[in-house]
Amino acid sequence: MQAKYSIIVPMYNEEEVIGHTYTKLKEVMDGYGESYELIFINDGSRDRTVEIVDGICRNDRNVRLINFSRNFGHQIAITAGMDYAHGEAVIIIDADLQDPPEVMLQMIEKWKEGYEVVYGKRLKRKGETAFKKLTAMMFYRTMRSMTNFDIPMDTGDFRLIDRKVCDVLRGLKEKNRFVRGLVSWVGFKQTMVEYVREERFAGETKYPLKKMISFALDGITSFSYKPLKIATYIGFALSISSFVYLMVVLVEKLFTNATQPGWTSIVATNLLFNGIILILLGLIGEYIGRIYDESKNRPLYIVRETQGFEREDRKQDIGVEREREYVR
Ligand code: UDP
Ligand code: MG
Q1: Ligand 1: nearest atom to the Cα of 95
Q2: What is the DSSP letter of 125?
Q3: Contact of 325 with 83, CB cutoff 8 Å
Q4: Which atom number of ligand 1 is nearest to the Cα of residue 10?
Q5: Which of 25, 93, 96 to mutate to test ligand 1, by most ligand atoms within 8 A of the CB atom?
Q6: Contact (Cβ atoms closer than 8 angstroms) between residue 91 and residue 160
Q7: CA gap 212, 217 in Å, rounded
Q8: Extents of the domains making up the chain
Q9: What's the CA-to-centroid distance between 265 and ligand 2, angstroms?
């Protein structure tokens, strides 16, 4: 029988917490009394994470394990989890118990009310360094000002998505995946539950600065090509100020004796062309941006549901339908 809920847990070197996380998830879901599957994705851990989950897997028919060949990164791990999930609702949760499992039940309640995406909004972040909080804050603000649609602030990947949303996300083929952005981008009926982000249960963060920067760049560049436009803006600003200074140079040349021969022409060409070159670069950026949009190959629109059609037409509802592979 197919499980009603699929819970996706990405793991990278989580040997210290994973056993405990499993117990906690099991406790909460068993208590709820509906069928579920736990999908653990091992993202190339170098510690005993796999052995531990493998042991759990043998003893619990609700547990599945996807083992990556190497570290592909958190976002790819989540993507794989969604590819293998069979549930009517899919929940993504961190392995370190920073996202409290009880909150999943609140998400499920919202889902039963008819919402198709329920994301967790962090009211407070406990036990994280001031640096992490500051960079996270800057990131969400920059993201917001750079993109043209609403990515909710202060939300992680802890969220519930409906089967339909999961299928749509599976159809998006882009390589640089910023899952929470994609989830916002697909639309559907979205709501949130608020929660306090706990301290890591054990172990330390698997997001060092380097990973955080590449994550932020993925987020911004996947949803915005505003950075490409910077050349245009600077170009215009430079052209205007250059023009003003050009006038000064000409006046100096014509009405004073303060200039060396040849100086005026060199300065004048410099001033004129720097601005023009930047504007042209920006123009090229505009085109590259559009090419980039096209090459992402996202569907132009997504239909939530249709009514009154023959069964065959329903396949078109979501941009692309993929063959499903089964884990077991
Ligand atoms: N993670 C992963 N692959 C990575 C880095 C992290 O699967 O390359 C997992 C990690 O095991 C955890 C989740 O992603 O379940 C979030 O990572 P972490 O808690 O270290 O990030 P933080 O909460 O500090 O932002
Ligand atoms: Mg964490």
Answers
A1: 15
A2: E
A3: yes
A4: 7
A5: 96
A6: yes
A7: 9
A8: 5-206+298-324, 226-296
A9: 60
Pairing of strands 190-197, 155-162: unpaired
- Give the model's pLDDT for residue 285: 82
pTM of the model: 0.73
How many angstroms separate the CA atoms of 178 and 186, rounded? 13
How far does the centroid of ligand 1 lie from the alpha carbon of residue 10, in Å? 7
The answer to whether the CB of 40 falls within 8 A of the CB of 65 is: yes
Structurally, what CATH architecture does the domain formed by 5-206+298-324 represent? Alpha-Beta Complex (3.90)
Tens of pLDDT, residue by residue over 291-327, are 877 787 776 555 555 555 555 544 444 444 444 443 4
Residues 6+ apart with CB under 8 A from 293: 225
Q: What is the rounded CA–CA span in Å between residue 220 and residue 145? A: 10
- Show the low-confidence residues of the chain (pLDDT under 50): 313-328
Residues 238-275, buried b or exposed e (16+ Cβ, 10 A)? bbeebeeebeebeeebeeeeeeeeeebeebbeebeeeb
DSSP 156: E
- Which residue is associated with the tokens 């299928």? 167
